[in-house]
Design brief:
mainly alpha; 68 residues
Amino acid sequence: MSAPAPTRPTAAPTGGLDVRLPWWAVALPAVAFAVLLLMIMGSGDAHAASADPAVGRLLARALALFTG
């Protein structure tokens, strides 16, 4: 028993490219953009964290070790 051969469409589709996106392909980037925008807008009250002085000394020693 042989299987039927697939048939090709008789006419080429006319018009432009038909692309259909799922709902989340549009919603997720929009939500991410909104969250990042809100984070930027709300950073006016942010303050720099105070660094431990030991970290500065460690970096200075590492720089002195590598430079000479």
